[in-house]
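ok trying again, last paste got cut off:
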Amino acid sequence: MEYLTISEVRDELGEDVSSLTDAAIVRRLDRLSAYMEQTLGHTFGRALVARSSDETHTVEVTDDLLIIGGDTYPLDDYANLGVLVDAVNGAGAVYSLELLPRVHPETPTSLLKPMAVTACGGSYDRRAILDVEGLYLRVSGDGSTHLFLPLPLRSVTAVTEDGVELVEGEYTTIPGECWIERHYTTWSTRNPGNIVVIYVPELWNRVPWPVKAALLDALAAASNLTPVVAESFGGAYSYRRAEARTASWSWQDILGGPTLRPYAVRFHP
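nice, full thing came through this time. structure:
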C-alpha cells in the first residue's frame, strides 16, 4: 500500500517536481512516511519493503507463499515476519526484505495480505510495499477487566491468554472502541507479555485523505515546493501556475501536528 502514488504527487505539484525522477520522489516520500509512522505509532497495515538490485525481479504473495526474485518461501515454514525476513536476507541473493520499525517481528506470516506480481527491482521507485491484514499486539495482563488497544478496532481475529486461545464468549468487544473486556474474571498477570491480540483496526489497509494531504504538504515544505492551480480563459486556453505558500509550518510540524493526531495510537502497549 502506497500512501501517495507518483502520479498523485506530479498532479498536485506539477512543474515543481518535473526535474525530479520517480526514484527521487519515492525516496523523499519514504523518509517522510517513516517519520509519520514513528509519530503515529503504526503503519496503517504496511509491513515489509521488498527490494532487489535486479530490475527483472518481482515479488508476489499468495495465501501460502512469498515469491521474490523467482525464489519461493512457503509461509508455513516461517512462523512470523521476523523469521521470514531473516531467511530472505540470509539467502545470499540480490533481493531483500525490510521489516518496518513499527511492525512487531512476531507478527504471523499468515497475516500477509495477498499481492499480485509486482516489480521490486532496479531503481528505488520500484521497491514494493507488502501489507498485513491485522495488527499483532503482545501485552501483559494487569489484573483488570479491560485490555486497552492502541487503535480503535473493527474486528478481532484472535485473543490468546497464557498460551490458550479464548473463544468469543470469554471476552467482549465493541467496534470503534479501544478495549477488550474479559468476561467473568480479570486479565491474568501470570507472565510478562502473556496476552496476544490480533485484530483489525478501523483504518487498516487504507489511507485517509487527511493523511495523503499531510504528506503532500510535508513533501512541499521539505522540498520548498508549492502546489499548482489550474486557470483557463474562455475554455480555449489554460495553464497551471504555482500557488503561493501561506503556511510557515515545517514538515515536522505538519506530520506531528493536529491534522494527523486523530490517527495516532491512543494507548501505548
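cool. The CA atoms of residues 211 and 260 lie 7 Å apart. The first helix runs from residue 6 to 13.
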